[in-house]
Amino acid sequence: MGVFWKSIRDNRRGWIGWIVALTAVAAMYASFYPSINNPAMADALNSFPQSLKEAFHLEDYTKPENYFAASVFGLLVPILVAVFAISAGVRAIAGDEEAGTLDLVQAQPVSRVSLALQRFLAIVVAMVAIAAVMCLVVIALRGPGQFTALSPGRLAAICVQLALFGVMFAALAYGVGAWTGRRMYAIAVGAVVAVLGYLANSFFTQIDSLTWTQRFSPFDWYLGGEPLKNGVQWGHAGLLLGFAVLFVAAGTWRFNRRDIAV
Amino acid sequence: MAETPAIRTEALVKRYGHGGATALKGLDLTVAPGEVFGFLGPNGAGKTTTIRILIDLIRPTSGSVRVLGVEPRSSHELRAKIGYLAGDFVANGRQTGRELLTYLAGLRGGVPAKRIERLASDWDLDLTKRIGSLSKGNRQKIGVLQAFMHRPPLLILDEPTSGLDPFLQQQFVSLVQEAARNGQTVFMSSHVMSEVQQTCDRVGIIRAGSLVAVEHIDELRERALRKIEVRFDSDAPALDVPGVSDVVIDGKVLRCKLSGDADALVKALARHHVVDLISEEPELEEIFFTYYRRTGE
């Protein structure tokens, strides 16, 4: 497990920064809830056109599950998680390979598969840590933030979905990077999937001929089943996990067979 | 049964990509255990490609490779027995030298901390500094140390002294000589002829992806042309001696090149009054150049 611990150690500062930043963003949105939860704000929101409300997921914000799904867990957090996951996934193999530093490690008595999987495992641990810390902090804010109506179990459910969502993006960037050895390909594929997935889950739902795309959006697999109301969505969780396993397996398979670039 | 060669390749071919450049065209190479083998050739001849195949960083298109009797691809454990120094040694610059060396030592199954400290102090290297803040020479020192620190049976070194100053090059030569005394096998590519002459038992010369010659250093030295300059007390005489070529007479001075035995020349000179006689150390470099330039047969 030397590679795993080294990966944690090398990335500890950056990953702690992500934990702090993402938790701070979620906590800020959460503590904003009391000022949303009043009749004047509800009236203001109700005056927006329906299509705009749908595009931005503006529902009845006075209900905490709606507000939290749209703001705390719906806006910045998943986007930042995707950015974190893609950048971590890219670095695991492709970034190291392009920097020329993979040579040295791969010249040690550690197999390619073990090296790659240990590094991916470190990312999974970081992603779980992000989701767990965010979850605990938001649960701790239930009283002061006046959203005790949201049960800790439901908050934990959405954090599980969020962690899987992040793991899937990390797996995608890792997989493309491990397959090709090229940072830019991994970043590009990750970014395109994130952007298209986001659009499919928001603006495309307004275009009749494109509504079908929502079912294929990782954002839908994360939030679409409304885990804050309904708990963990096992079908969606399975999709996120299934694709993650597929991307990791494919990338690692190819990485074990190809040449390492100079 | 003969000892297993430290390195053996047969008809090794490496093509990059689909229809890409052919870097190796059927390389046959055998390095005996305990030998110090110099791997020479112009840039782009396939030296680094060969070395990266031995470490299993890249895979051959065809042909066979055995390192310490094992196919590199079949066993990652093999690499615990190898010390490898890449041609352009790079490591993540945000860690300290000690962090990196400890990490690599751990992956290889452990190196006594004392050994690392000892090498670092011998090489005047500060292990507490982050690698990114070190000069190129100091970074290369870390590369050399990590290759030697676990006393591997086989050292594979790609241009090991690039970036080292002449003093450190000399220190490197002693490290290789010590390894050779310990019975370690050393396979190194180099451009620095002096270190090749001082360390290597045999050299292989690769050109355009195939091995064009394998020679013992001593035999090469015998065959090498040495430059001779003779100063007489009167006009230099014309000489016709076997082994002497490129005779140039300039007043009282005669310059020529001599290959092999010097006896005939000395006896011919003895008939004249010789004021001064200079014989330069044979330049292996020039022999290598003749191999480098020679077109494929």
Overall, the morphology of chain A is globular
pLDDT < 50 stretches of chain A: none
Structurally, the number of domains of chain B stands at 2
Q: How big is the Rg of chain B?
A: 23 Å
Number of strands of chain A: 0
Discrete helix count of chain A: 13
Keywords (chain A): Membrane, Transmembrane, Transmembrane helix
Organism (chain A): Paractinoplanes globisporus
Transmembrane segments (chain A): 15-36, 67-86, 120-143, 155-177, 184-204, 234-253
Protein name (chain A): ABC transporter permease subunit
Q: What attributes characterize this protein structure?
A:
heterodimer; A: 262 residues; mainly alpha; 13 helices; B: 297 residues; alpha/beta; Rossmann fold; 2 domains; 6-stranded mixed beta sheet; 4-stranded antiparallel beta sheet; 9 helices; 29% strand
What does this protein look like?
The complex is a heterodimer of chains A (262) and B (297). Chain A has 262 residues and is mainly α. Chain A has helices spanning 2-31, 33-36, 39-46, 50-55, 64-72, 76-99, 102-106, 112-140, 152-180, 183-201, 218-224, 227-230, 234-257. Helices cover 76% and strands 0% of the residues of chain A. In chain A, helix 1 (2-31) packs parallel to helix 8 (112-140), helix 9 runs antiparallel to helix 11 (218-224) and helix 9 (152-180) runs parallel beside helix 13. Chain B has two domains: 7-220, P-loop containing nucleotide triphosphate hydrolases (Rossmann fold, 3-Layer(aba) Sandwich), CATH 3.40.50; 225-281, no CATH class. The two termini of chain B are 35 Å apart. The model of chain B has no long low-confidence stretch (mean pLDDT 89). Chain A binds chain B through residues 2-3, 6, 10, 99-101, 103-112, 114, 257-260, 262, and chain B through 16, 48, 52, 55, 57-59, 76-80, 82, 84, 86, 88-92, 94-95, 103-104, 106-109, 146. Chain B: Keywords: Antibiotic resistance, ATP-binding, Nucleotide-binding, Transport. Chain B: GO terms for molecular function: ATP binding. Chain B: It holds the Pfam family ABC_tran. Chain B: This is ATP-binding cassette domain-containing protein.
